[in-house]
Amino acid sequence: MRLGLRQKYALTILGSLLLVIFALSGILVLEARRSARRLAESGAEVAGSNLLEAYKKRGEGLIKFLAQDLTNPLYHYDMQSILAVTSIVRGQEGILYVYVYDPEGRIVHDGTREISSLNRILDDEISRKAAGSRQMLVQTAANVLDVSAPIRLADQFLGGVRIGISLDSIHSDISKMSELLDDIRSRSVRKNAVIIAGFSLAILILAVPVTILIGRNLSNPIELLSRLARQIGAGDYQTRISLKRTDELGELAGAFNVMAQNLRETTVSKQYMDDILRAMTDVLIVTDARLTILSVNRATSELLGYPEEALAGQPFSRVLPGDARLTQEDLAAALRKAPILGLEMELQSRNGKRFPVLFSAQAMQTGDGGARNFVCVARDITERKNLEGMVLQSEKMSAVGQLAAGVAHEINNPLGAILGFAQGMARRTPPGDPNEFSVKSIEREAIRCKNLVQNLLAYSRASKEPPAPISLNQCVLRALSLVESQANLTGVTIVQDLAEDLPGILGVANHIEQVVVNLAGNSLDAMPGGGALKVSTLLESPEGNGQVRLDVEDTGSGIPPDILNRVFEPFFTTKDPGKGTGLGLAMIYEIVQKHQGTIDVRSDPGKSTVFTLRFPALPPS
Ligand SMILES: Nc1ncnc2c1ncn2[C@@H]1O[C@H](COP(=O)(O)OP(=O)(O)OP(=O)(O)O)[C@@H](O)[C@H]1O
Ligand SMILES: [Mg+2]
């Protein structure tokens, strides 16, 4: 069982108190017992000596009486009278013997009728002293009080008389008294013990609540302090305690508060760090020294399509494309030497999509001085790359535009003369004339060239024609009517799927028609053996800022992935020399951009290609 501070404190105080009480009570009881015994002993002593004194007095009285009453009988050796006197004494209770003796100490009479010890001289110490003494003598031995006195007649020493008084009764009296005193003593000891026990109990009863109060007073603030410490340990640095005390506990509480405040100011909580990492939009990957992933942030899992936990423990190569320029080992080796800053590379998502990123990584010393970890940060630069591509495209287009403008300008005048003369000659050539076919051909090709040159001029220069609300569907219909005959020739079916009530767009109809013609032309080129050309329009997100969408889809040869991002480059063509200029899609790109639109291409090589164009829809008028 775990005891709290308060219980321990109370137990200690009460235990010590009990010990002191027991010790004190023991000492008091012992002392009382000892003094009672002493009292009893001295009482018995006093009583004993008083009794002895009384016995002596009795003995002296008796001996005086005997010495006096025996004087004459002894002088006359009147045995009868001696017997008469001595028998009076001899018959008394407690008298052990009576001896009457002559000057030599020889026993003359012993108080008995037969006088059994007549003429005996007693040789013991007491007898000798008694016989030798010329004065009254009181002697004590074992259980006898011996009293003797000389018997004189005038100056004549006739002998003496001795009596022995039994002291047995004294002893029995003394022991009786002792018993009485003992009884008194033990009763007083018991009484004392009861008083002491009662007193101790009273102290204990008083001590229990006092101890509990003191314990509470001591342990409550400690409990508060320990709760505060636990809260601080759990990362709650807001908590404070207020102890209105001026002692050490009060000081401790103050110190705790200061500590919590300091911690709050200096410690970055785990939650705070997590929030920062969560809010980061860049990819953050922490790896160990061998580039095994330890943890990733949410942006990483969102970009790469892995759950956050799924990447922990995986090698870094898991997020690199299979054909990455730098392998995991290359990166680890580079990082061991120096940090990597702003390296352009690619990361690959779970479903194989590649992301251009700006990659930086740095070694991080772990707190325990153990192996170094690496912190890798990667910024997705897909957007930037796209913009760069668009800028590049625009630059190329403007270069082409200048070139085309120059060339068109130079060709325009001579072409005008050729067309003028060809038309004049055609008018003058009668039907059936052998030159008729040649002249008509010159006129037709010259017209085609003029159109081309004018288109070139139109795309390269800022178009003179101002943009106006136009219908995409009508542009599509007009453009398709131009390619229809060619489609019939090559066995291509044209499918139209045009949305009704399509909002208008702001643009130049002529240019949009050129776009459709060019896209359809490319599709026909891609389907020499026939196929289907589907042209559809629709309105996207009609509630918000709507977009009018145009899809041109064919079942042709498709575009291999490695050239997919190059098809919009000026002069990029896969067609034989003389057959394609590589300008078609470049011009389309330019026109779409001028109309604030976008163009995307998807292709399944060998199966299909689809170009998707989007233009801002005009609000319904
Ligand atoms: N629908 C398509 N199917 C297959 N490949 C296409 C398609 N559209 C374009 N391409 C490819 O893109 C290249 C560039 O097309 P672009 O229209 O710019 O030039 P071009 O058609 O080659 O020449 P031009 O348009 O001057 O006749 C083409 O050579 C072709 O390889
Ligand atoms: Mg083309």
Description:
The chain is α+β, with helices and mostly antiparallel strands. The chain is 53% helix and 19% strand. It has helices spanning 5-75, 79-90, 125-132, 168-233, 248-266, 270-279, 298-304, 308-311, 328-337, 382-428, 436-460, 472-490, 509-526, 561-564, 584-594, and strands at 95-101, 107-109, 137-141, 144-153, 156-166, 283-287, 293-296, 340-348, 354-364, 373-380, 468-470, 492-498, 505-507, 531-540, 547-554, 598-604, 608-616. It has a 5-stranded antiparallel β-sheet with strand order 2-1-5-4-3, with helices on both faces. α10 (382-428) runs antiparallel to α11. It is rod-shaped and about 230 Å long. The protein starts with a helix and ends in a 5-residue tail after the last strand.
Task: Write the SSE topology.
Layout: H1 5-75, H2 79-90, E1 95-101, E2 107-109, H3 125-132, E3 137-141, E4 144-153, E5 156-166, H4 168-233, H5 248-266, H6 270-279, E6 283-287, E7 293-296, H7 298-304, H8 308-311, H9 328-337, E8 340-348, E9 354-364, E10 373-380, H10 382-428, H11 436-460, E11 468-470, H12 472-490, E12 492-498, E13 505-507, H13 509-526, E14 531-540, E15 547-554, H14 561-564, H15 584-594, E16 598-604, E17 608-616
Parallel strand pairs: 12-14
Antiparallel strand pairs: 1-2, 1-5, 3-4, 4-5, 6-7, 6-10, 8-9, 9-10, 11-13, 14-15, 15-17, 16-17
Bound molecules: adenosine-5'-triphosphate and magnesium ion (MG).
Magnesium ion is lined by residues 518, 521-522, 580, 584.
